[in-house]
Write a structure and sequence with these properties.
single chain, 421 residues, alpha+beta, eight-stranded mixed β-sheet, five-stranded antiparallel β-sheet, 10 helices, 26 strands, 18% helix
Length: 421
């Protein structure tokens, strides 16, 4: 049976009834509290209204106040059975042949709000944020750039899903402006280090997993249970100041070159919605150690695009096309490795994939790669870039193509503002 909603969904919409991603919003020009929602076409469905009407009547959600919260954390902590119960309930309520919401004009008016009338917020309270380095193509390109092709990828990379602990306080929702960071960069000759606005500001095309139920301190998550701890995925731009990063990263890794801002898209697309787009990950050679060896290893066929809108132009230009399926380490391997030492994850934690680059130059996921660290300026729409200029607006999109429908992530965008003096 073909799924269809009574809510009009345009053919190119990212949010058909097959998707129903979860987010948090509040009405514009209102003092209302934030509340959870799902996206359907050009509307948000207010889950606090649906819950108050008693329409979440399944055994796991009927007595829960998870949709009366200002974020999704309580719902995330309930786990996959509750997530699936919510998804099934919402698909039924929104379907074309179900009268409960369709024929109740008063309830429909309160629960369905046009997207242009709401402000999207961060979907969860993010307690911790970890950023991985899971793309082999990105690792090889960066290694070749800085160490030469003979030592492009260190041996440990093929055994360890490499990551660093990021700064959760500076994670922002799509549409938030990004102030150019200031910091130190490498000295020239005998002069002291440069200090001032970053001269090599970059984007990083990433996605991120949103953690559901966590684990107790000291108790790792088994690789074959890891998917039950991942609610879904968002788009993520881990903005990077390459000059600051290059000067500071030895010996402890990224700090001020990364911590100034990370942007995520507002809608979390669930793993259940992505299930039709499962594909095989790249072959892992050498084989991973037993604790990372999956019985059923999965990636997802998610098309990704990066566009730039310069401040003096009216139309954006696509400068990169990549795909989530290029990731070498799967999101379940990343999560399991994160906990193997006993580290405890919590609902709402964010696990970034690292830059998702493909094998071809047009699929590279950052300007560092696209311009080969500024050596080969990127030309588009009558202009060029080595790194980002003030006023540039960078937008990511991601989507999966189904049979007559699209499961998408919406947009992840940010505009560069000049550095503070």
């Amino acid at each position: 049976m073909v799924l269809q909603s009574f809510v009009e969904v345009l053919p190119d919409s990212h949010f058909p009834i097959h998707n129903l991603p979860f987010g948090v919003f509040k009405p514009k020009d209102s003092d209302s509290e934030p509340r959870p929602a799902v996206a359907i076409g050009d509307y948000v469905l207010d889950l606090s209204i649906i819950a108050a009407a008693g329409l979440f009547d399944g055994p796991l959600l009927s007595n829960s106040d998870c949709f009366q919260q200002p974020n999704l954390n309580k719902f995330l902590g309930l786990g996959r059975p509750a997530w699936r119960e919510a998804r099934a309930t919402l698909q039924k309520l929104l379907s074309a042949d179900e009268p409960t919401l369709r024929d109740n004009a008063s309830l429909r008016q309160k629960a369905l709000l046009p997207m242009d009338k709401v402000q999207m917020l961060l979907p969860a309270s993010i307690g911790d944020y970890t950023d991985f380095f899971a793309s082999k193509h990105h690792a090889r390109n960066c290694g070749t750039m800085f160490r030469g092709p003979e030592n492009a990828i260190n041996l440990n990379w093929f055994y360890v899903p490499i990551a660093y602990h990021g700064r959760a306080s500076s994670i922002v929702v799509s549409g938030t402006d990004v102030t150019r960071p200031r910091g130190q960069a490498a000295p020239t000759g005998n002069s002291p280090p440069y200090f001032g606005p970053s001269r090599k500001l970059d984007f990083e095309l990433e996605m991120a997993a949103i953690v559901g139920p966590g684990n107790e301190l000291g108790k790792p998550i088994d690789i074959n249970d890891a998917s039950d701890h991942i609610f879904g995925l968002v788009l993520m731009n881990d903005w990077s100041a390459r000059d600051i990063q290059a000067w500071e990263y030895v010996p402890l890794g990224p700090f001020l070159g990364k911590s100034f801002c990370t942007t995520i898209s507002p809608w979390i697309v669930t793993l259940d919605a992505l299930e039709p787009f499962i594909c095989h990950p790249p072959e892992q050679s050498p084989p991973p150690l037993p604790y990372l060896a999956e019985k059923d290893s999965k990636n997802y066929d998610i098309s990704l695009e990066v566009s730039i809108l310069p401040h003096d132009q009216q139309h954006e230009s696509i400068i990169s096309r990549s795909n989530f399926k290029h990731l070498y380490w799967t999101i379940t391997q990343q999560l399991t490795h994160h906990t193997i030492n006993g580290c405890n994850l919590r609902p709402g934690d964010l696990l970034g994939t690292g830059t998702i680059s493909g094998p071809e130059p047009e699929s590279y996921g950052c300007l560092l790669e696209l311009t080969w660290n500024g050596q080969n300026p990127l030309s588009f729409s009558g202009t060029t870039r080595t790194f980002l200029l003030d006023g540039d607006e960078v937008t990511f999109t991601g989507y999966c193509k189904g049979d007559g429908y699209t499961v998408g992530f919406g947009k992840c965008s940010g505009k560069i503002l000049p550095s503070h003096n």
